[in-house]
Give the backbone structure.
Amino acid sequence: MSWTPFLPDPRYGRELRGITPSAGDRESIVLAFVCLAYVATTAGFGDPPRAVAWAGLGAVLLGAVAGRGVWAGWALVAVGLALGIAGRPFAVANHHFVLTWSSLALALALSAPAEERVELVRHNARWLIVAIMGFATVHKLISPEFMSGSYLTFGIVAGSFGEPLLRFCGDCAGIVEENRHAIAAFRNAVPDSAAVLPLRSPIPDLTAVVRGFGVSILIVEAALFGLFLFAPRSRAAHFLVLAFAAGLGIIRQELVFISVVVALGYLSCPHSRRWLKRAYLVAAVVFTGLAVY
Amino acid sequence: MTRRSVLLFVRRWAVLAGVCLVAGLQLSQVLAGRQSSWKGGGFGMYAGFHPNYAEIWAWPADGSEPVRFTRAARGPAHTGSGLRLCTVRTTLECVERRIPRDGERPRYRRVELWQRSFHPATRTLTRAMILAYPEARRP
């Protein structure tokens, strides 16, 4: 591994001064641990693809220890994850797709000449966040279930959202449990379009809460899209990723997805934002650890 | 254009192009009502009910009671089928292709796919049939 500082990219100027070509390699280790957590804990994408992904991750981590370039390891990870998608394209989760694209991006970036690597890692991570948040916002805007509040109201009534908060809210947990039993019984009966199941609200003023919740989701996702599109190196963009991760952690424990978003935020964050880089590292360790746990 | 600049262009934009292609195709399927927004790599998670909430009911050819296909149910009546996939690919072709068969003969005389519907104002849950195979009446 060469530690010789390279000349700053003219587009980034001061920001890249003093950053070594190996920085892209070293930073990608955060994503390697997230991949490791995903591959180790997720069943169902087939043993041969999993074996290929394991081999790739092994190469990435050994390469990092030995101080060698690891682009081929990332290429192997991308192939393993892509084979998993090819086997079950409509069953794998969205974060599986994100990890596949991220691995491919790292393979491409780390195969570049040393002086281009850091900028390529940042560039690809930034545009992945733009794409994820852009498409996520569009899907919500075109979904009648989301826009009418039907999906979010059901999620709160059935306890799918904000589960950790229910224990601080009097009888909420009891009402949600009651609703869940009623839904399970309803589901086991042969369906009939005339059958109606009334459910109880666990919180007062549910309509207003749902409206605020829905609008907040749209604003945050659209803001992440806009900030990473127009101001990817701003403090606001990276602060919002961390806030999004923390909020999602409380509302819905999608720990692998949160870890992936945090890792992409870390990779896209400039070195000059030192405390943000550290915050990303702490968040990545916490969420990846919780996902494995 | 030098080889290096072409490679740089590929390294900068190939992944984004791939993401937009896959997510764009998935979005078009969702808009056409042929697919759940949750799956297929288009980042449509949390935009609507998860396909796991959809229900597949099948009426066996031997006239016995209808069975519900769930992720958890792995009893004899539920095996040998990828029918659950049709909660994601919500098309008749999906059901036709994946209905369990004994030789050429389908093991079920009718399969129905039902989706949940929740009315936020009245807080009532109902179910609506989104497709049936074959398109005859329920036995």
Observations:
- Residues 73-77 of chain B have pLDDT under 50 and may be disordered.
- Residues 18 and 61 of chain B are 44 Å apart (CA to CA).
